[in-house]
């Protein structure tokens, strides 16, 4: 029975069982005592009667015969009635019976009071523990209502009440998780809006300034052309910023489902650097690709190529004229790795732990291109597919990014 799994009820039932044993034992001892007392009173009464008859000269044989007699005659009943010792006689007229009656009543009353006291103590302890349990539960539930989940309902025992407590704890855990998720979502939205508004201030201010200059010199074709080009750069920067932030936001909120398929790594890399080869050529830089053309990787090709492209773009931003970006890949029994390395300026030790933060720009690279979202976006894409991105760098000796994916069974 589930009722017997409740420790407090189990203890109370055990108490009732022990109380029943005590009741039976007390009753048995009381009965034995009463029988012995009755025997003593009976013997004392017989001794008194015999002593009185002997004093009156009744023969011993007659007395013994009378004591051993078990037959009742009408004359005997009439004699007792006439002497006032019949059934209706008051107990005061029978001193031995009166003494036995008083003794029996006193002992029985004491035994009953003792048993009632034990029963009352046991019930008091049970209901006191139960009340404490309810008070504890009420306090915890009040904390839950107020949003405090630091305390917990007792769940150390089995039983109906503790099953209810367990269900309430599960509900509280769900509510806590929901509240934390909502809080994180609000903080994330707040931070995102703050980041976007902060990052848009500069290009918007620049656009306003360029537009004012163009308005003031409408007839100066060279000025109009120059600042119109700058307006185009600012608008492109704003577009890149907004698109990148939207992508990161969708990734962080889980609104993007990666469509994983088998794809050749060589095709993945080619797709990633397709739009960057022209830039590298114009900047007198080179992108070198080396690896087994037959190797395959299970991933979302479009998103993974964007992540790789962002890392390569970052490498081009931090390499000088004549710089080289190497892209290789390798397979191990447990992992598949894509390595992207360059011979650029490298990353300062104080910056290497911050490069995946949004809008982070090192004081050593303020003059380089980029808005500080490429690497955070690449990290979100790789980790969203169960991969890991790591970086090793040394000032003056370049940087290596390693993208690791679990080998699919």
Task: Name the features.
7 strands, alpha+beta, 61% helix, five-stranded mixed beta sheet, Helix Hairpins, two-stranded antiparallel ribbon, 409 residues, single chain
Task: Summarize the helices and strands and which ones pair or pack.
Blueprint: H1 7-55, H2 60-68, H3 74-82, H4 95-145, H5 160-216, H6 221-252, E1 261-264, H7 265-273, H8 277-282, E2 286-290, E3 296-299, H9 301-317, E4 324-331, E5 335-342, H10 374-384, E6 388-394, E7 398-406
Parallel strand pairs: 2-4
Antiparallel strand pairs: 1-3, 4-5, 5-7, 6-7
Please give a structural write-up:
The protein has 3 domains: 2-145, no CATH class; 166-252, Helix Hairpins (Orthogonal Bundle), CATH 1.10.287.130; 261-406, 2-Layer Sandwich (Heat Shock Protein 90). The mean pLDDT is 80. It has helices spanning 7-55, 60-68, 74-82, 95-145, 160-216, 221-252, 265-273, 277-282, 301-317, 374-384, and strands spanning 261-264, 286-290, 296-299, 324-331, 335-342, 388-394, 398-406. It is an alpha+beta fold and 409 residues long. α1 (7-55) packs antiparallel against α4 (95-145). The protein is rod-shaped and about 165 Å long. Strands 2-4-5-7-6 form a 5-stranded mixed beta sheet. GO terms for molecular function: phosphoprotein phosphatase activity; phosphorelay sensor kinase activity. The chain crosses the membrane at residues 102-128. It is found in: Membrane. Residues 195-409 form the Histidine kinase domain.
